[in-house]
Design a protein that fits this description.
mainly alpha
Length: about 150
Amino acid sequence: MESAAERTKLWWGAAVTMAAVGGVSERKAAAGGVAGMLCAQVIANAVCKQLYERRRPPADMIPHDDVEDRPDSSSFPSGHTAAAVGFSVAVGLTSPWLGAAAAVPAAMVALERVHTGAHYPSDVAAGAAIGVGSALLVHHAPKLLARAIV
């Protein structure tokens, strides 16, 4: 799961598949998912990680020997989780069934980030909150902009 989620390959692949084999609703869900994912990544990685420096969990806290090379960036928040949740929630706002299907690998990504020792649970929770907020933002932004202009 870790390698599939790296550099958001999993979510890009899901979006391309939805757009290629689906109809108008699936293409709209795919576009929303990509927008939610990108928004979440910018907020988590380009903003929050720069504002709050947190060290990764110490290797001796991990109950297994599979502690691989971990990133040097701040542990807080989890950018992988933010992207996964941003994609899944944004897709779900347009297509609830596809959103539920995307939520399964998103939850697996979040659990994997804690299991491998890359993040504390609070990092993952913050990433998930950023993902939800990003999905809501990109879903409602067009309506809010239209109201502001008129």
